[in-house]
Amino acid sequence: MSAVNNKKNYVIVSLTLALLLSACSSSNNGGSAPSSSPSGESAPPSSSAEKRDVGGLQVPIVDEKLTLSLWSPAGGNFRGTNFNEKLSFQKMEENTNIHIDFQHASEASEEAFNLLMSSGRLPDIIYHSAWDKEAAKYGNQGALLPLEDLIDEHAPNLKRILDENPEIRGQITSPEGHIYYLPNIMLNSDNLTQMFPQVRQDWLDKLGLDAPETTEDWYEMLKAFREGDPNENGSQDEIPLVTVSLRNIMYLFAPAFGVDMDFFVENGEVKYGPYDPRFQEVVEYLNRLYEERLLDTNYLVDTTFQSLTEKVTTDVAGAWFGWAGSYMGNFTTLMEGKHDTFKIVPVAPPKGPRGDQRHVSFRYPAAALGLAVSSQTNHPEEVIKWLDYQYSEEGIILNNFGVEGVSYDLVDGEPVYKDEVLYPQDGLTNTQVLLNHTIGGGSWATVEDPRYSRQIQTANGQTENPLINFADYLDFDFKLPPIQFTSEESDIAVSGMADIQTYVDETINAIIMGRTPVEQYPSVIERLESMGIERVLEQYQAAYDRFVDSQ
Length: 551
Fold this sequence. Notes:
The chain has 20 helices and 15 strands. It is an alpha+beta fold and 551 residues long. Strands 4-3-5-13-6 form a 5-stranded mixed sheet. The chain has a 4-stranded mixed sheet with strand order 8-11-7-12. Strands 1-2 form a two-stranded antiparallel sheet. A hairpin with a 2-residue loop joins strand 14 (408-411) and strand 15 (414-417). Helix 5 (156-164) crosses helix 6 and helix 18 packs across helix 20 (533-550). Mean pLDDT is 87; it is low at 1-37 and 39-47.
């Protein structure tokens, strides 16, 4: 059957209520330093606690305190220095009797991950945000432990999820039939949407404008923002469209022209956006916005969330593409009491000149991010049991909500955040406060809980769930699914894309900024061909066809 010829194939409504615990949160975007070695040493003995059952898993996992090492990014919204500062991990250690030696670096980068994997000295557990493309490669090289047998024997909570949701098992199984990483899982279809276009409704109201529907509507709206003084300060200081990355702007506009910034699927054929002639229309449109100062002319420089927040909260930003909580919700919270009419609304993805209208910023139930187990670990059973705890009812609640009585209370059996989390008084956003308590269900090898995002949205003044608005625009046939490469495919595709991606980023920015004429775009396609994009596409096609056949 088609990989995605029916959306309901990916709308997963299984598991009991106790297991429908999932949550959206700020994604990990830091890097980390390699552990000196897998942690096999035990800490001083602790008193033996009585065993209890957690979804079939017996905890404490070990009688004597055991230390395991874990390489993981710290995350951009986390204000601490080590995940053990989070109360959820402290409670997890108390429950499992396993201490995690977190290894963090000051900067997030693919280079840091590559250095770790080539170091020859791996920690017990490794985090990565793109295991779907890398797991089979490192697994076949012997760096990662195959987990399917360990899951069957020692991970009852995760095994139950995979057995009841075979689509998820298929998404994380390598071409050779192995599971090399455990993913973040979303079991609620409403939260598959991630980022979406957001517009200042109060600016629309002041200028007498309707929400934009087409790419030309967007142009006219942004032009009105630039010229109409919607912040009413008598100065033309408005920045109509702001962003922290070109990629976010591409997510917004490229689908309207029938393509994507990255790989996508059209009639069963895998294509690469910048290699498609239609992509010239995308950069031509963005060049138009840039030349007329409708797109932030500092978009290549101001790439931090802090810089974007400053533009929004100083009332100069009119529209952007971002998250429901950390963007739309937090901006609303930060402006409360400072701006009487400030209001943000989600708007539908723009319709393009040929009628294309898609929303591509959504995820499949099994995310690419997650945790893998090093083949160098001395404690494979203890590691898989600790990982299984992340998917238990207890672990899911800890990862999404933190510790009962500290960050949340149970109200009629439902976890409800405390007011000091939802409505912080110290200048922090509620996302930042929450991440002092827990890892966040959307950025870890666990199950996300939609009740997290619902409470954050409500606290931030959102009476409706904005993510539901995009359900009709999710095109699973267009979006490349979470394919997995063989080692040979990975060697060609991943390494080949390294130079191609650098060239594409530099060239597209040059065209948008007017340094390279847009009429020269056919030469970009020729250059991509000479750089081997056709061979890369062959690997993606093979992996995609294999994914389709497995469904």
